[in-house]
Amino acid sequence: xxxxxxxxxxxxxxxxxxxxxxxxxxxxxxxxxxxxxxxxxxxxxxxxxxxxxxxxxxxxxxxxxxxxxxxxxxxxxxxxxxxxxxxxxxxxxxxxxxxxxxxxxxxxxxxxxxxxxxxxxxxxxxxxxxxxxxxxxxxxxxxxxxxxxxxxxxxxxxxxxxxxxxxxxxxxxxxxxxxxxxxxxxxxxxxxxxxxxxxxxxxxxxxxxxxxxxxxxxxxxxxxxxxxx
Length: 229
Hints:
Order of helices and strands: EHEHEHEHEHEHEEHHEEEH
Shape: elongated
Strand order of the largest sheet: 3-2-1-4-5-6
Low-confidence stretches: 182-192
Largest sheet: 6 strands, parallel
Radius of gyration: 22 Å
Distance between the termini: 47 Å
């Protein structure tokens, strides 16, 4: 896919590099020559450009771009102006970064396709990880459901997924199992990234494995909280 990333701050640069690593074509623009030079070997294309200048922005291959991400963070005015400009130039899909509630309302009025809130989303994820110590990672699906990676409670080690009865007891599903190492660095759990495919009910889990669970947030909380007692 083809992307235009506007703004090479921490969020924009990280996103552009990840998309490039995943074999996408990325044009990243910023008005800082220093940033453009720094990332030129890490992103498909980097261009020094004022994203609020219609004459220069109109020269970008917008019709051939799948998604435009307005990643400008600190300057809300520039963010809104760039978003409106790409909207006016008929970008296929625009995702814009929101700073606060009022900013989000303005972006919605402009007609962006989606809004990203990196600080808020990161805070929510860390809040969930810190409040339940056996969560390795989580991904919210809408308001009420999540997928979480959770360490194996000790009492389940050596049991099969079928024997755990997590669907009957807690109404949650085991999607897959990740084989994890037993290392700790700065108290953070380290994964070996050995994902075992769709969960086999007869698979026996080990104490260092990680379960990938799906369920309603309330059901997941009940399971995680009772396992911490």
